[in-house]
Specification:
- This protein is α/β, with parallel strands linked by helices and 289 residues long.
- The protein has helices spanning 18-33, 41-49, 69-78, 103-114, 123-136, 165-174, 176-180, 189-201, 221-230, 250-262, 273-288, and strands spanning 2-7, 36-39, 59-61, 88-92, 119-120, 155-160, 184-187, 212-213, 236-240, 268-270.
- The strands form two sheets. The protein has a five-stranded parallel sheet with strand order 3-2-1-4-5, sandwiched between helices. Strands 8-7-6-9-10 form a five-stranded parallel sheet, with helices on both faces.
- Helix 1 links the parallel strand 1 and strand 2.
- Helix 1 (18-33) runs parallel beside helix 5 (123-136), helix 5 (123-136) packs across helix 11 (273-288) and helix 9 (221-230) packs parallel to helix 10 (250-262).
- It is globular and about 60 Å long.
Length: 289
Amino acid sequence: MCIGLAVNQLHHANRDAALYRWLRVCEDSIRALQMELHVVGRTYDAMLGEGMLQGYPPLKRYPYGRHGGLMKLVAEVVGLGETRTLDGAIYLIDPVDPSSDYPEAAALKRQCVIHHKPFVSTVAGAIDFIECQRMHAGLEPLPAADRLFAFERQTVALIAHDALKQDMFDFAGAHFDLLSRFATRVATGTTGQGLNELAWSRGWPKDKEWVVRYNSGPLGGDAQIADRILDQRCQRVIFFEDPHVARQHEADIRLLERAVTTVTDEAMCMTTPVVAQRWIEAVTKREAF
């Protein structure tokens, strides 16, 4: 697997910064998986400056962001031949860093969504992602990742744009038992109603909602869920995004994404049915251990 890696400045500013917290948990796994990392310049320098992944041949240094390093990762998500095609990207975002709003940052996420590849923007998500790759490779689970899979103590948000609502209903129906293990499920308007109807058809008590419904997205539902994320009362977001249409409430969607990156050690987001399905398969493998 080949993954792009970039980190905003805050996340490598000191020895306890997000980049290093992630690598302390995952460096051995990255080596065991022989994962190839294409790393934007300053992030690469910060890693080696702390002695992490030194002497690791699949580590490739790219130019600084100001010299096009992040733009190159965007092109590689789309694909530039066998040696320059990424399987996804980890971009640890500081939500108040202006560079997180640059066109190349938005394009990196958008192209990951279009090409059904993972886009990981938080420490929790990066640990979760590496743990899932361990499961697909047949390795044993890491105890350090156990807390991320304690679904009985977590809330999951299930959100889908109009063109992907049926995909969300199909996903929830196929994995109803696993999703029912979460302490709480939340959703925005129409998606939430459809999910509740699905649950009632599966025998869920008719006098009890399977998901807590917030407003529709255009009427503030994304903002309501963002508040829950900021209070650390929602840990996972499964958000099936349609990147091909203009959205009236784009600002609210970005607010939700910024909330996730604000609580980087606790929250994570998956943005396509393909990525979510691969996560489900990893969870199943992990529980088999």
